[in-house]
Amino acid sequence: MIVTAGAFSLDGTRFHRLPERFTEPLEELVRFRVLSRMRTRGVLGEERGRMLAGWRHSGLSVFVGRPIAPGDKERLERLARYVRRFHLAESRPIYDEAAAA
User: Fold this and answer.
1) CA 55 distance to own-chain centroid
2) Could you give the CA distance from residue 97 to residue 33 in angstroms, rounded to a whole number?
């Protein structure tokens, strides 16, 4: 998901960044919405959802890097490609039936 961390001035010359105190609540909101949607779709049980919601680290993050200027389509496209790629090496995850039981 790509969301803005602020807004550009009307003339496009200055970016007004959200204060950092908003990044943690935004991360918590994203965690809540993702876990809720997973429970609604039946891919996550209530108990496991409560467990994941209570973890200190959500497993989700909010990256606040350099702003992408209006019209900088190359950087926006590069960011979009990064966000949509699979972030685990497909050869690494191993399903352990004994541990899943």
Assistant:
1) 16
2) 29
Q: Which residues of 28-45 are buried (b: 16+ CB within 10 A; e: fewer)?
A: eebbeebbeeebeeeebe
Q: Model's pTM, two decimal places? A: 0.49
Which residues touch 20 (CB under 8 Å, ≥6 apart)?
Answer: 64
92: tokens are 């690494």
CA–CA distance, 64 with 84 (Å, rounded to integer): 17
| Domain range annotation of the chain | 6-100
Q: Amino acid identity of 75?
A: R
* Per-residue pLDDT tens over the stretch 57-98: 766 666 667 778 778 999 889 888 887 776 655 566 666 667
